[in-house]
Amino acid sequence: MKRGLLLAGLVVIAAILVTSVAVLLLEWRARETHQTSVAAIGGPFSLTDQDGKKVTDADYAGQWKLVFFGFTSCPEVCPTTLSRISLTLKALGPLGDKLHPLFITVDPERDTPAVLKSYTEAFDKRITGLTGTPAEIDAVVKAYRAFYQKVPQGNDYTMDHSTLIYVMRPDGQYETLLRYDDTPAEMAEKLKPLLEQG
Amino acid sequence: MVLRDMLGGFLALFIAVASAGQTHQYKLGPLEIDNPWSRATPGAAPNGVVYVTIKNTGSTPDRLIDVASPAADQTQIHDMKVQDDVSSMWLIGEMGVPAGQTVTLAPNGPHIMLVGLKKPLELAQTFPLTLTFEKAGSVTVEVTVEPAGAMAPSQGS
Question: pLDDT at residue B19 above 90?
Fold first, then answer.
């Protein structure tokens, strides 16, 4: 009986050891992958701004940027995101002028420069809308490791898309991100020390 | 006698004043429809949204089977979710209103979508919306337009 228990105990300990090693290995690998993923967010892009001018990422160098994706036919997520960003800029006061929100459409078919300009200006003149060819949009979405998908709806369509806001440094590198449920106060608090850096 | 009349009068007045604050409720048979609200839209936005609370105080289940408004080309019932930082939305067409329960159409969930606005929705304006239920029939409500980023009606719910 005693021998049986001892054996069982050893098996349990062995199982724990094996599991722990496996978890540690996976953790290590995950960290490695995460590091690579974080480093790879962002990158060069070629798009058209809301004034119809061709732009690249270089045109926004030297500024803190908030890069996010959406489309103007979106009834809730996009207007509320733009509203939150506009309130965040206001909460930041003069520091808000150092921040350049870039709203990139995932629906270039419908979101022409004129449509984007009318849309963004309704929230804040500091927000710039960007569109492009489907290939250019695909490329920038991929560069930010973001997501979008066209979903047919009867004789119309909607776009599923990432809700994350990517905070990009003046040198073009990824800094951090803001989420859909972050309030303007929370966003301003997170951005303030970054903007004060210069 | 006079005092009783006076008290009755005051009570009636009190109730009238108290329920005036509740003006944004509609009754349709056993259904109570509360606070239909929308958001102001930027000029270029082709679509809008309506949220509302529907309470079924009866013992028979009902279904919201149609929505219509002159404010848009098409009016539809949709649901949406944000999961893993991705938003998605889909047409559901109809909604059950179970007996004794309250169904809430609110941000981050099912909502009424106005597809193809005839003109932008402006803050503080109202527009009509007709809700048709399988059993209770139809009612036309006035939707209040709240600010563009609002996540709740200003009139409390």
Answer: no
State residue B6 phi and psi, 5-degree precision: -65, -45
**In chain A, whose CA is at the least distance from the CA of B48?**
A75
- Which of B44, B113, B147 shows the shortest C-beta gap to A72? B44
Distance CA B34, CA B38 (A): 13
Residue B135 has pLDDT above 50, yes or no: yes
Nearest one of B16, B139, B11 to B66, comparing CA atoms = B139
Query: Which residue bears the tokens 């800029």?
Result: A89
pTM score, whole prediction:
0.81
Q: Which CATH code of 3.40.50.300, 3.40.50.970, 2.60.40.1890, 2.60.120.10 fits the domain covering B25-146?
A: 2.60.40.1890
Residues B76-87, buried b or exposed e (16+ Cβ, 10 A)?
A: bbbebebeeebb
Q: Looking at the DSSP assignment, which residues form a beta bridge with residue B49?
A: B113
A72 touches chain B (CB under 8 A): yes
Question: Do B88 and A160 form a contact (C-beta atoms < 8 A)?
Answer: yes
Q: Where are the domains of chain A?
A: 1-39, 46-197
- B119–chain A nearest CA distance, Å: 14
Q: For A14, which DSSP code?
A: H
Q: With contact defined as beta carbons under 8 Å apart, do B122 and B62 qualify?
A: no
Superfamily of domain A46-197: Glutaredoxin (3.40.30.10)
Helix axes A77-92, A184-197, angle to 10 degrees: 50
Chain B, residues 99-128, CB within 8 A of chain A, namely 107-108, 111, 113-115
> Is A160's CB within 8 Å of B148's CB?
no
ipTM of the shown complex: 0.80
Is the pLDDT at B9 greater than 80? The verdict is: no
The answer to whether the CB atoms of B91 and A77 lie below 8 A apart is no
Q: How far is Cα B155 from Cα B25, in angstroms, rounded to an integer?
A: 11
| Burial class of residue A96 in the structure, from the number of CB atoms within 10 Å of its CB (0-12 exposed, 13-18 middle, 19+ buried) | buried
Smallest Cα distance from A151 to chain B, Å: 9
Check CB contact under 8 Å for A156 and B115.
yes
